Q: What sequence folds into this?
DNA sequence: CTTGAATGTTAAGTTAAGGTTAATACATTT
DNA sequence: AAATGTATTAACCTTAACTTAACATTCAAG
């Protein structure tokens, strides 16, 4: 996973702290979202699905501890990394923080270099677990972790390109992917392949998964449907 | 895994700091070992195979950073949690620490409650990953303590690299490990080995354990399956 | 109902990825 | 310092995966 794919949600009621962190993180290429309180934070988190959430402890409405607890109760955020932002020496908060499922805490005042370094260390944890992803549509399940497609409980293993193509199409069932788009996403922008290559791969998928899952939209592209 | 099974190695040149930490950790039921410098630390680590190592940054002979680097080069300690102990505000050390593969750092002076809480948070990570003890899948059992693989009751002893590779793959049966990932986890990020090295090791495993346990996903990596 | 551009199909050609082996370098024991 | 055991490399081999090309079929516009 590339640095530029990481999404970070910053939550703090003080706008200047927020801006300062945002500036530093964006400079490093992260996607940064912000919220001013716990309530906003949860809304934003649901929308953006960030990889890392940095929560200030002291906030109006809902404090960091409480926000963290709520987040941890939402299954989506079970694996999200949550870090607290605290003033030095707030011992009790630190303890409560860990108990409530925080992964780390960062002390204010923030020093850019340490801060960035810390963030990187935290995100490093994700890199191994982030290739992980299973999702299902109808009786088809795609398991990126094991690199297999499961159809009605039966494992079908596909070669790389076929798998990637399958994965792309299934990622948005019903949506039509233009040939161009497929080429750039599965083959990459710099590879040039002949006209029939996509068709041949679709053919193999139809053979292995089933004819009627893949629909051709002439002149446009293909779509997956259950 | 029970608290009482966790082994922690403390490394600091100041005996009273050492004693203080030791006292507090033992009170909580951890097994605590100590060392006064980097050299001792590495010896002790090899003997005790601790789950967590706390390294003071400033030490005679070999400092914390250097010790950490050395440790990370030993495959056994790839998954060991390493934390630095620093005086407040040693920014640069912190950065170097993370770069060298540290998981966290703890600031002095140590406050017992925060300290313990922190340690628990760190060790919690281990509970999910099966990094310790014995582990079995189907008729294959891996004994990490003794460095032995048991297949259908028969012990097969593997050399270190083969064992590490085996261990990695078996740790998540079915999951595909990318070549890169295997390299960084078994060989380490800083070692560069030729293209065929992984294959050769896989070959040896197939020879010793059985062909069909190891599946190749071309262009991606390998997975273990029973 | 034509018709031609777009896609389907098949099988044969390529190639990149991995398999295999043996030789060499490197480490440990004894 | 042999001897034994491990790890890595290099050279070559094998194949599945991928691509292409040639021909067949479809389907939607006229």
A:
């Amino acid at each position: 996973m590339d640095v530029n794919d990481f999404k970070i949600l910053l939550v703090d009621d003080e706008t200047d702290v927020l801006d300062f962190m945002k500036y530093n993180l964006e400079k490093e290429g992260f996607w940064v979202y912000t919220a001013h309180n716990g309530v906003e934070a949860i809304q934003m988190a649901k929308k953006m699905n960030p990889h890392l959430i940095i929560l200030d402890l002291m906030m109006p409405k809902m404090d960091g501890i409480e926000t963290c607890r709520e987040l941890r109760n939402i299954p989506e955020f079970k694996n999200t990394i949550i870090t607290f932002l605290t003033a030095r020496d707030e011992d009790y908060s630190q303890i409560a923080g860990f108990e409530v499922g925080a992964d780390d805490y960062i002390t204010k005042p923030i020093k850019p270099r340490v801060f960035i370094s810390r963030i990187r260390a935290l995100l490093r944890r994700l890199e191994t677990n982030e290739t992980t992803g299973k999702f299902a549509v109808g009786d088809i399940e795609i398991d990126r972790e094991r690199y297999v497609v499961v159809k009605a409980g039966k494992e079908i293993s596909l070669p790389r390109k076929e798998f990637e193509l399958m994965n792309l199409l299934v990622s948005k069932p019903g949506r039509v992917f233009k040939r161009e788009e497929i080429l750039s996403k599965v083959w990459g922008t710099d590879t040039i392949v002949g006209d029939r290559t996509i068709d041949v791969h679709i053919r193999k998928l139809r053979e292995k998964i089933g004819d009627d899952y893949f629909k051709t939209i002439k002149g446009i592209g293909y779509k997956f449907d259950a």
